[in-house]
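Fig. S4 source data, part A: sequence.
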Amino acid sequence: MTHGRVLVVDDEASMCELLEADLRLRGFDVAWRTSAEEAFTLLRGESFDCVVTDLNMPGVNGIELCERIVAHRPDVPVIVMTAFGSMETAIAAIRAGAYDFVTKPLETQMLALTLERSVRHRRLQEEVKLLSEVVKQARQFGDILGESLPMQQLFDQLARVAESEAAVLITGESGSGKELVAQAIHSQSSRREKPFVAVNCAALPGNLLESELFGHVEGAFTDAREARKGLFQQAQCGTLFLDEVGELPLAMQPKLLRALEENTIRPIGSDQETPIDVRILTATNRDLESAVEESRFRQDLYYRINVIQLAIPPLRARGTDILLLAQHFVEGFAAKSQRQVTGLSEPVAERLLNYSWPGNVRELRNVIERAVALTGTEKLSVEDLPEKIQEHRGSHIVLGGENPAELPRLEDVEQRYIRHVMEAAGGNKTLAAKILGVDRKTLRRKLKED
């Protein structure tokens, strides 16, 4: 796949040939013409991602060509080449609708970077235009929406998992949609007509959690004025979802394990066992394997709840799903608040794609809800976004230049990359080790060396 198809326009054939040769080496597909009239005719019949035109040409000049393209093909960005120091003509080109300008004598590397940016801009424009339609046609599993490869793979796994009765451990960063996944599994399972009951294990202290899960009989403790069914009984014949299962107190873990192994529970204060028929789904944003190794989580319970493990990709790993979800949220919040907001502007789409989304889908949802409430325009503008997203700049691993004195040592590059993967994996050593292709012991050793 090329970086994009470029039409070069210059009245000097030698300049066109020079640019064609250089840009082809950089991965662009290039066509050229020596007059604006010929270029415009070609553009009307063929598809291009960008036009690069000289300003001073006989007949129709670069400014006039730019105006024609903006009028008839506004989707194609135009980059104008102008003599060094001719700022007035550069400004005139921008006013005529040019995307950007470069000065002569040309630095071809700078031109290539400008071209890459303009091609990304065009493709982003196309995506933004199609977003509303794409949302309607996007693949869903329950209430989960996604078109990216990681989500397609997850949907395929979910379809198989929903048909089974096996215990499922759902892993993923906070805000990535673990409860939505649990609900989707239940809604597609044979238990769909029965209750789906969820509890956050981190939200209750151990003594209350035991009563919440197993129930109690009247008089079991001071405030037990009447008997109460626990969540296991409330979920009978359905699904019980234990969120943040990694936060279970150690004292509670053997009691939960016994309930899962025996398919019975004993309410607090009772001497009778009560049979249960419940499918267990659990979720965590912790690295449970590390917790097992550090004796913070029982190994036998870990194996019992981890029959099948589903890893939810973080939002930053889902590519243009970010825009798909943003459009979905815009439409939902606009309808709810009866506001005439239809979608995203291109600059907003670019900011959303560049941001790292540490809070995942939950954070994106909150950002869009805020933006829809604040905007005064039909499409969200950059000013509607929180300042941290407006000003965010993506981070990249930089290896150095061509000067041998500037090149880093191999161990430094390795450590920087390991830190980068750990950050991308949300601190999950198991996932990071899998990405790096090493075992967990090797990863732990390398982290200690850092």
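Fig. S4 source data, part B ends here. Residues 264 and 275 are 4 Å apart (CA to CA).
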